[in-house]
Structures are given as C-alpha cells and as structure tokens.
Amino acid sequence: MMSFTPLQTLKNVEFRNLLTGRFFIVLAFRMLATLLGWWVYQLTKDPFSIGLIGLSEVIPAVSCALYAGHVIDMNEKKKLLLICNYVYIFLIGLLLIPAFLDVRMHFTGHEITYFIYGVIFFTGIARAFIGPIIPVMIPKIVKKENLPNAVTLNQATFLISSVCGHAAGGFLIGYFGIKWTLLVIILLIFLASLFFFQLNKQYSEYKKENINVMDSMREGISYIFKTKEILGALCLDMFAVLFGGAVAMIPVYATDILKVGAEGFGLLNAASDIGSMCIITILSVVPLRKNQGKILLAVVTGFGLCIIGFGLSTWYWLSFMFLVISGMLDGISVVIRGTIVQLKTPDNIRGRVMSVNSIFIMSSNEMGQFESGLSAKLLGVVRSVVFGGTMTVLIALVVGSTNPKLRKMQY
Q: pLDDT for 6-60, tens place per residue?
C-alpha cells in the first residue's frame, strides 16, 4: 500500500541539512572513485592496478575503524565531521599536482600511480572516521518511530548521489579532463561542509577519563557478536559484496570488452546505482512491512546471479540491464541491513557498532575491488566476475541456513 508518510521526516530541517551535506560529499567521493579507476587504468593498462586503489584505502580505514568508533562515541560529532571534510579537501588537493604538472615535471605513469596510492592511503584514515559519523548522528536528530524512514531516506540520498557521481564523473572526464574534474570534486566537498556547519552539536554521553580505549572497542565488537541479526546482516554485506564486486572491473569491460568510451563508461559505472535509486524511491512510499530477513537473503542471491550475467555478457545494453537489476536488489538489501543495525543498536555504543559496520562495508567494497583485480589477473576478467557472482550466491545460501534469527527477522 502506497503511503507518503515516510517523506514527512524531511520536514525536520536539521535532518534535511544532514542529508544535503551527505549528498554533496558522496557525490564527490563517487566522482573521485570513477576518476581514479579510469585514471589509473589509462596510466597502467593493468586491471590489477585498479584493485590496488581499493587496497590502498581499505588497509588504513579498517585498521583505524575501531579506534575511530571510540573517538566518535567519546567526542562531539559535528566537529569531527567538519574536520574530516577539510582533511579530504587537503588530500584530494594533492592530486592536483600530477594532474596539472605531469607534463611540465615529466612524471611517468608509474610515478603518478604510486602517488595516487599514497594519497588514497591517507584518505582511508579519514574515511574510518567520516564513514560512521552520519549514521551515528541520525538517531539524535529524528524520533525513534521515524528511524526506519530516516534510514531509507538516508540510503536514497546516498544512492542518488552515487548515480549522479558515477555518471557525472565519466562525463566530466570525457569532456573536461581529469584535472578539472578534480577541482569540481574539491568544490563539492567544501559545499557539503556548509550544510554540516548548520547542524546542532552532539556531545558524548561519556566522561573520557573513565573509559579505557581497549575496553571501549571490545564492548562494540562484543555487542555485534551477541546480536545475531546484526552479525548475519554484516556478514552478508562483507562476504557477498566482497565476491560480487563486478563494478571494479567496469573500466576493463568498457575499454576492452564492450568497446565504449568515457561517456559509456560513466553510464555503465552508474547502472547499479540507478537500479538502487529506483527501488529505494519505491521503498520510500511502499515500505517493506514483513519478512525482511527472508527478503534480504533472496535479494542477495539474485544479486549474485545478476553479476554472473554481467560477467558473461558482451552486449553493452544487456550488461547495463544486469547491473541495473543488481542495483535494485542491492538497494533492498542496503535498506534492510541499515534498518536492522540502527534498530538493534543502543545510543551509547552506536559509534563503535557503526565503526565495525564500516569495517564490513569497507571490506566488502575496497577489498572487493582488490579481490576483483587479483582474480582478474589470475583467472582473466570474465572468469573472475563469474566466479565472484557464484560465490555471492553460495554465501547467501550459507548465511540463510546457519542464521535462523536473521532469516526470521521482521521489524
């Protein structure tokens, strides 16, 4: 039954500012991911080099995530969010050096690639902090009864900005080049900070001197392992998407298999997010009301099958449609997983739980990018994508059969 009640959450001005800021910063991050994948592949012509982008970011991000969760829970959130914004602006600004001066300073392709990996390593540290902050802030901004609606709208914002970022990144690279696209990315992150400035401060519920860092981090991990619904949802995210990360190989498919240019690459790169955006728009007015656990397992299985189809396709529009459908299924999965984590987490450990959540997300995305690059090098591009989709289906079946609490989960 259609209802526009979930959209009433947008009447909250502070929530709107948070979502608007998130829109611009995710838009910038997706444009950057698109740009780096294209840039590095054009420099090296090696699929494995694309995988190293993800590895360069995920190692520091995962390493710092647990400590970041402790810092978020113990400190004022708005200040941390703004600091992370400006750290990103500085780091991405460093990429302007090879972008503008590569000819004048006679940089080689390998030198630029190593410099990119170095910059991305430090953005990974910033990402460990910025990733969990916005989800942590949402429950303090909206009422508990509006939390499922807020999670859906938050994911809708993320996916709309992802679609626009992927597509805009491809188009801007094609028409204006890498250096001007980087300038646009920096401007968008600065624009996000203007909206974050308007948020209210959110102080810690703890006195820092009474909290041991290691005990604090263990508390967050322990809670997740005790809560089987959260653990199952996060495992699905990490392992299924880890093996189903076909998006990492899109630059190779666009260049060598489907034979399309930068514009076609940008659209193909946005295809899964287009599907996710469409389904989350529907979920905003037709929310899932029962059997969310079973639906989660079903859509992850379908996602894996779509990745297999994409891997085998040699026709551009068929490949595009497989990615769109995979995005629709993943969109449903994202909403269910996000709602489960928010509803099952107490406020006092939300930062640490969200940081562990970010480890699973980063492991699935960035490690998935590395896994795709390594598999492509060992098996070939097509075989690696088909293998990843097959593993995704198997993971969904294993989680579904071993976690009855997740299978029976409803909210």
A: 567 778 899 999 999 999 999 998 899 888 888 888 888 777 787 788 778 878 8
- Which tokens go with 202? 């959110």
- Tens digits of residue pLDDT in 239-295: 776 776 666 778 788 888 888 866 677 778 778 878 887 888 888 777 777 888 889
Higher pLDDT, 103 or 378: 378
Round to whole Å and give the CA distance between 59 and 178.
26
Banded model confidence at residue 92, pLDDT cuts 50, 70, 90: very high
pLDDT the model gives residue 218: 80
